[in-house]
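Schema walk-through. Below, the input block comes first and the output block second. Nothing else is stored per chain. Lengths vary across the set, and this one has 293 residues.
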Amino acid sequence: MKFDPLLKKCPLCDSASISLKYNIIQSHNFNVYECQSCLFIFMNPAFSDTFIASLYSDDYYSGKAGFSYIDERENHKFNSYVWKARIKKIHKYKKSGTFLDIGCSFGGLLSSAQKYYDVYGVEISDFASRYCKSIDLKVHNGTLNDAPFKENSFDVITMIELIEHIKDPVNFIKKTASILKPGGLCVIQTADMGAYQAVSQAHNYHYYLPGHLSYFSACNLSSLLTKSGFANIRIYRPVDFGLIPKLRKSRGQFKNLKDYKRWLTIAKYHFLGYFKKKGRPMTSSMVIYAFKK
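--- output ---
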């Protein structure tokens, strides 16, 4: 079957006050519902596990599918500017220890983290995880649920544009908390669906994708983290590092001097993240740092 049964309650707060928000028309059509209690948005009915697995084919990871990932290996040098900037920020809070990246893809962030940490990864794709192992990264091919990690194993856990792919975010965050050491840092990058960008663009917002099952706001994601044993939650907008690494990364896609005009667009989006419109952050990009109690 392509879909799971229709949910009658919110998977985040268990409220029965849910209703259809949008019908998303794409290569794979789907509906998203919104909870009127916590404002969590979720695919409903969700795609079945079997169908989800079919989305993450080798073509997805090599950038050849309709719903696809940009192969980070093609511009590794330029992408590394962002990875190194993020690790530099994380290093301010955790100087050393064990580091886990969930949804590590081809291991770009892990490669940068090796400077300070003993690194591990989780990656659902056999195609991507095989590559990680070929460059001597310790990566579990599967999901967090079937990974052989013990409680209180990690000092840092990152999930960069990963949590929106999770069907059961409550148990996922609980599992994350259980394998994180007390005082450990969890870093989550995702879209803030309560921000002006997402709200104003409605069903046309680019984050509505077949592989995205869960859509958070800064408020309900922070609440989930708090209920799961995290504290000292910090939200960075648009990301947890400055503009320069993003500009340097973009050069990997430039073909001629005219392409440098894109820096104006990138800079505008970056700085809009610092401002609000109608009481909402203007852009939806956010990174959350949360520390386990």
